[in-house]
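Go through this chain for my students:
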Amino acid sequence: MDAGPRFRTFGDWTRERFGAPLHRVALDAGSQCPNRDGTKGYGGCVYCDVEGSGTGALREGADLAEQLRKGLVRVARRKNAGPAIAYFQSYSNTYVSTERLEEVLRTVEPHVGREVVAISVATRPDTLPESALDVLARWNERLPVWVELGLECADDARLLEIHRLHTVAEFEDAVHRTRARGLLVVGHAILGLPGDGREGARRTADVLARTGCEGVKVHQLMVLRKTVLERWWKDGRVDLLDEPTYVEWLADFVERLRPEQVLHRLQADAEPPHLVAPASTPHATVIRERLEAELARRGTRQGARCVGPAREP
């Protein structure tokens, strides 16, 4: 077994590519979701809170330019201050008109090149029209643009149960079309979704590897307030992974990714006012260290169980 880290972290990759660690500035552009506005359904995914997994800053009155400015000030105050990623996080950011998407991205204009060196746009695989890819591809000529796409799990029946209301095939198609434009894709996965199990976690990693996503975000299932999942949990319909079990499943997952895929995230956390269960969430450093130890115990590393080549865009 070669020396060195057993998986490829976001921090290591950004130092290689940009020469410094990058910090995300989370932005709320006031976007919506077809699972909430009635186009596909109402109420959103069962685990998604009223902020759409984002900050809720726009609803609280902070416009985008103000959000970005304040975020860059926070980044500059950090001990290891470096350039930033403008991260359009809340809801589905390409579920808007082309004109609105252009307007949102122009917020970054005054900061391009010095303070902001990349853009990350979170969306759904079924809200990614070619017109949105046209806009993102033009911006990608100026600075790297990452498109974050939620897969969550690789089972259509589970995706329906958790009210994602898209299919694995739609995710694969969106990844292919996005990569064909020269854009980087970050695929999302949640381990421990109801009915998915350990084999489900492995299948999800296989799909993320096969599609060739350049990056991967993965985290444990949590129960947040004001979600359908909160009701399910109170009714006894949800079992959450304890930390040792999550690390075991995470090691299975990482072994099945491609060696070059960048792990942008290995766990999630939430503030106590928003978190219902578990009682607390593990710190990112703890999960990294325990994953490294588990892979060392197995004598494996990222990519050790990856099957087949990635699909070319």
